[in-house]
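Holo prediction — pyridoxal-5'-phosphate.
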Amino acid sequence: MTENIHFPESDIFPINTFVNNKKNISIGGVDLEELANIYGTPLYVYDENTIVETIKDFQTSFQSEIPNSVISYSTKAFSNPYLLRLLDENGMNIDVVTGGELAIAKHVKFPPQRINFHGNNKSPEELKDAIDYGLGHITIDSFNEIENLKKITDDLNITQDVMIRVSPSIDPHTHLLTTTGVLDSKFGFSIETGDAEKAIESLMSIDSLNLLGLHFHLGSPIFELEPYAEAIEYVYKFSAEMKNKYGLDIREFSPGGGFAIGYETDKKPLPISDYAKIIGDAVKKACDLNGFNVPKIILEPGRALVGRSGVSIYRIGSIKSIPGVRNYISVDGGMGDNIRPALYGSEYSVFSVTKILEKEGLMKSTISGKFCESGDYLARDVEIPNPAIDDLLVLPASGAYNLAMASNYNMQVRPAVVMIKDGSHFLIRRRESYEDLLSTSLI
Ligand SMILES: Cc1ncc(COP(=O)(O)O)c(C=O)c1O
């Protein structure tokens, strides 16, 4: 019988994470050392229970504020056929930003009415493909896209439901490279410059494009609530002007995603219900003030839906100490499977899978990867107990934008992905092979 010991940092891990009677970290009753031995490392591990509970949390939190709330997972955070089927079974919508993300959705026969197509540069071929599949929404992001969509829908003699992405010039105080709703951004029609008005005017005159409402996405991860309320107030004030000038109605409204998760034990995210309350209140107040009916609202979590559900496991291959300078612990993955630290300076917590309970012999270290870049690291200044070659390290909160951004840099193969469900485990993606690396070469 496994005795589960709670450890304080477990709240940034999947829901049922404990230390078991072997003194190893376990998730949903499955020992992480055992998984590493069976499937090899680096290894990504997801917990189905955490994903399903997070879906329910989003659905009940938002639907209790605005009953007509739809949760639409941003597949860019992590896309995989097993995951998309699970989302479908749990009544989720999804959004895609490329023909490739749409191809995965089509592969699992995800209901097209529940798919939204985002992206600032969709090609005419991608748009045609989306329309042929019968997508519920396309969120328009450029003037050229309006032209392309008009042509496709006119040629097919059909009407397509669309939203437009506006940029409200509001800073959500996250990293510059993950801020998207400010004036200086490639995303969306700026309200400030008058582009959003021009786009609405144009769309209201095109019969084959049915404008359902407006969308914005401020950035990610957003640890504050106020930017959402501020942006909703501003976008509704603008919408009221557009109603008077062009007859715009807001039947659907999307304040995007961006909800934060905990990466570090001392930087806690807010509960989803707090985001739901501020967004629900702001939408209802703005509708009241500006003479609109409360719309269907569409929330687009990516990170917050799968981030906490996933962990990454690595094995230590080398330890180097530079006295008075730094200790380097090198592991068998790195920027090829998790580029976030190198790209945005993102911070992760790191734990020893088998020595988590050891409180002596802590070595302050940089956890570096195996790729040929000095900037290839996973975490800095983390304390690892008695690190030794072959020890396993685990990074919690690895479920979003890690593997989704993975590359084959240095011709490294991408890791396998395991799902934990009801105390058992199975591969949902195999590790790549050297044959895979050669599979696209023609000569
Ligand atoms: C339009 C849009 N919606 C939703 C998301 C998902 O953001 P997050 O994963 O932070 O929830 C993004 C992320 O880039 C986005 O651009």
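READOUT: Residues 226-246 form the longest helix (21 residues).
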